[in-house]
Design a protein that fits this description.
The protein contains eleven helices and ten strands. It has 380 residues and is α/β, with parallel strands linked by helices. The chain has a ten-stranded mixed beta sheet with strand order 5-4-1-2-3-8-7-6-9-10, sandwiched between helices. The radius of gyration is 21 Å and the shape is globular.
Length: 380
């Protein structure tokens, strides 16, 4: 069978209104042979605090469409240069997800107009991180800003917020609230804030398994003046839940020869991350974990993620931070139902941390019963 019979062709364009504002567009053609079956358009609107350097490759475009192509079995055809090292890594990246979910994804060919060697001529010594304002992202900033814990630290120069992931592209006011909180957190740190507005999520057919590639597509758009992209970890090494879109196995396989992508923070549980940032008041006053509350861009103190984050602080014996205007009631914990495996891992961490710190209260009993009930259901 001709591998080019069904393909996904990427035509790219770029325009700049200034060095600080760039719009990149992917015009996508879904083909059967030479016949166009469907057309789609993906945009990336980038606003930065510092001038944006030209991109050496179109690696980002491949990641933006990769899972759509893997789902339909289409060869990806790119109208410009792609890194040879990146293509080698992405072949292995595809193998990972095709092995985890063979019923959903298959490995596809990627044909670039030109394959280039992109080994760095000189180190830029600049990192960019995906930044939502949540616990994982805030810990990544804390770790590289204050150079603790551990010895591996990057010169973090940019934090990028994505408008179109957890906050819909139409919700401008909500994204402004989230961005304002992030600016208050990072003010005076020397870390610049960039925002990326995109409709790219619609090309990610299964968000929980595809969002890592989406973040990789965003981070690669900073490869002109950065040499490392950091994605905050979701779970620690001790409690990895797979398959998940962002993880320490597949994330590094989105790297090229001159731009590494790394998972950051797997050495720490969520409670350990919060223990580190608890003394950084700018973080605790402005942290944002909520994505489903009625006031998008702020913490609702009612959803599962808000509830467990407040309990993370409680389990450490730390006062409720200013970013959460209301406390958690026992009946809210009691009413939690149908936790996912990842959420159950987080609840178990909270219970373990509370016991370790000698924290007591009726709420601890509620968490214990919640964990017991879900473990029983899982075993049955």
């Amino acid at each position: 069978m001709d591998k080019m019979r069904t393909s996904l062709r990427i035509n790219t364009s770029e325009k700049s209104s200034s060095d600080f504002h760039v719009t990149r567009t992917l015009d996508l053609e879904y083909l059967n042979g030479n016949r166009i079956q469907e057309k789609r358009n993906i945009f990336f609107e980038l606003h930065t605090d510092a001038p944006t350097a030209p991109l050496p490759t179109l690696n980002y475009a491949v990641l933006a469409v990769l899972f759509s192509a893997m789902k339909s079995g289409r060869t990806i055809v790119v109208d410009g240069p792609v890194s040879r090292r990146f293509l080698e890594n992405i072949e292995e990246f595809q193998q990972v997800f095709a092995s985890w979910t063979p019923e959903r994804y298959r490995v596809v060919d990627i044909v670039a107009q030109k394959e280039v060697d992109d080994l760095p001529e000189e180190r830029k010594d600049a990192a960019v991180c995906a930044f939502s304002g949540g616990v994982d992202a805030s810990f990544t900033v804390y770790r590289h800003l204050f150079k603790r814990p551990g010895k591996f630290h990057q010169n973090l120069r940019t934090a990028v917020l994505v408008h179109g992931w957890d906050i819909a592209v139409e919700q401008s006011e909500a994204f402004k609230r989230a961005t304002d909180a992030s600016r208050r957190m990072l003010d005076g740190t020397g870390i610049g804030i960039a925002t990326m507005r995109t409709n790219g999520r619609k090309l990610l057919p299964r968000w929980s398994q595809n969002f890592g590639a989406g973040l990789g597509s965003i981070l690669h758009q900073f490869a002109g003046n950065h040499d490392c992209g950091l994605i905050g970890s979701d779970e620690p090494y001790s409690d990895l839940v797979l398959p998940l879109g962002s993880n320490p196995i597949s994330n590094p396989l989105m790297s090229s020869g001159s731009f590494r992508i790394l998972t950051d923070g797997c050495r720490c549980t969520r409670s350990e991350k919060i223990a580190h940032i608890a003394d950084w008041q700018r973080a605790t006053d402005n942290i944002r974990v909520c994505w489903e509350g009625p006031t998008t861009g702020a913490n609702c103190c009612k959803c599962e993620k808000c509830i467990r984050t407040i309990m993370n602080f409680r389990a450490l014996g730390v006062s409720r931070p200013g970013a959460f205007p209301a406390d958690v009631r026992d009946e809210q914990i009691r009413g939690m139902r149908a936790l996912s495996p990842v959420q159950l891992t987080f609840m178990t961490d909270i219970l373990r941390t509370a016991r370790k710190n000698g924290v007591q209260g009726t709420w601890v009993g509620e968490v214990e019963e919640l964990v017991r009930r879900h473990n029983t259901q899982k075993a049955s």
